[in-house]
Amino acid sequence: MEVVIVDSPEQIGVLGAQAVADTVTAKPDAILGLATGSSPLAIYDELGRRVAAGELTLKDCTGFNLDEYVGLPDDHPQRYRNVIEDEFVTKTDIDTANVHGPDGSAADIPAACAAYERAITDAGGVDIQILGIGSDGHIAFNEPGSSLASRTRLKTLTHQTRVDNARFFDDDVDAVPVHCITQGVATIMEARHIVLVAAGRHKAQAVHELVEGPISAMWPATILQMHPNVTVIVDEPAASRL
Ligand code: GLP
């Protein structure tokens, strides 16, 4: 695990985007793993800047989103498919038809989860996964206690995550869905390169556990210590407990 401590969230964006650009330069039809949350936004902004400047193209890339709320209407702005569309797809030249996410409205959720796993495998697996981390150490929506061998499945969000994410729902925690579909911990671990980004003091304990803690399902991100190719990019406040 390589840990890079930077001065600002903007620098997280520059280094994260550079990692994506390196992957795409080596493999123009790379499979990108996409994350929601505020942490990766600087990466998407920088990728958008590079595409607009003609320095990079993602036109042959495919994207797979990490997770999705269950039960939000198709046009809800916080549906992760829509968030990725607004924050990443529209800023770059990736083809929206090539960006996929778990189907949070599926009638048969277990079948949709299995189909999503197959789609990732059939595409050849994720080349570079952008990842955030929850203040409780979750990755995607694999909450504390998630099996470290888990695959894409239905999960119940913890109260803490719903409180953390209420800011995207007019600060109304009751408006945050209770359920989600998330790639499993083992699904995420199959990505060939993982770039985890975090900013802010509220992430300091999670980053401490991620880098220095014992591997435990109670801090799901700690399994990344077993991955051969992880880059952790954090600002000083997030690194303050290292
Ligand atoms: C949500 C997402 C995670 C993300 C986390 C942290 O729970 N499902 O993928 O890592 O939020 O988000 P932020 O970067 O906004 O702190």
Automatic annotation (TrEMBL):
<dbReference type="GO" id="GO:0042802">
    <property type="term" value="F:identical protein binding"/>
</dbReference>
<feature type="site" description="Part of the allosteric site">
    <location>
        <position position="156"/>
    </location>
</feature>
<dbReference type="InterPro" id="IPR037171">
    <property type="entry name" value="NagB/RpiA_transferase-like"/>
</dbReference>
<feature type="domain" description="Glucosamine/galactosamine-6-phosphate isomerase">
    <location>
        <begin position="17"/>
        <end position="227"/>
    </location>
</feature>
<feature type="site" description="Part of the allosteric site">
    <location>
        <position position="153"/>
    </location>
</feature>
<feature type="active site" description="For ring-opening step">
    <location>
        <position position="136"/>
    </location>
</feature>
<dbReference type="GO" id="GO:0019262">
    <property type="term" value="P:N-acetylneuraminate catabolic process"/>
</dbReference>
<comment type="function">
    <text>Catalyzes the reversible isomerization-deamination of glucosamine 6-phosphate (GlcN6P) to form fructose 6-phosphate (Fru6P) and ammonium ion.</text>
</comment>
<dbReference type="GO" id="GO:0005975">
    <property type="term" value="P:carbohydrate metabolic process"/>
</dbReference>
<keyword id="KW-0119">Carbohydrate metabolism</keyword>
<dbReference type="Pfam" id="PF01182">
    <property type="entry name" value="Glucosamine_iso"/>
</dbReference>
<dbReference type="GO" id="GO:0005737">
    <property type="term" value="C:cytoplasm"/>
</dbReference>
<dbReference type="GO" id="GO:0004342">
    <property type="term" value="F:glucosamine-6-phosphate deaminase activity"/>
</dbReference>
<dbReference type="GO" id="GO:0006046">
    <property type="term" value="P:N-acetylglucosamine catabolic process"/>
</dbReference>
<keyword id="KW-0378">Hydrolase</keyword>
<comment type="similarity">
    <text>Belongs to the glucosamine/galactosamine-6-phosphate isomerase family. NagB subfamily.</text>
</comment>
<comment type="pathway">
    <text>Amino-sugar metabolism; N-acetylneuraminate degradation; D-fructose 6-phosphate from N-acetylneuraminate: step 5/5.</text>
</comment>
<feature type="active site" description="For ring-opening step">
    <location>
        <position position="143"/>
    </location>
</feature>
<dbReference type="GO" id="GO:0006043">
    <property type="term" value="P:glucosamine catabolic process"/>
</dbReference>
<feature type="active site" description="Proton acceptor; for ring-opening step">
    <location>
        <position position="138"/>
    </location>
</feature>
<dbReference type="InterPro" id="IPR004547">
    <property type="entry name" value="Glucosamine6P_isomerase"/>
</dbReference>
<feature type="active site" description="Proton acceptor; for enolization step">
    <location>
        <position position="67"/>
    </location>
</feature>
<protein>
    <recommendedName>
        <fullName>Glucosamine-6-phosphate deaminase</fullName>
        <ecNumber>3.5.99.6</ecNumber>
    </recommendedName>
</protein>
<dbReference type="InterPro" id="IPR006148">
    <property type="entry name" value="Glc/Gal-6P_isomerase"/>
</dbReference>
<feature type="site" description="Part of the allosteric site">
    <location>
        <position position="155"/>
    </location>
</feature>
<keyword id="KW-0021">Allosteric enzyme</keyword>
<feature type="site" description="Part of the allosteric site">
    <location>
        <position position="146"/>
    </location>
</feature>
<dbReference type="InterPro" id="IPR018321">
    <property type="entry name" value="Glucosamine6P_isomerase_CS"/>
</dbReference>
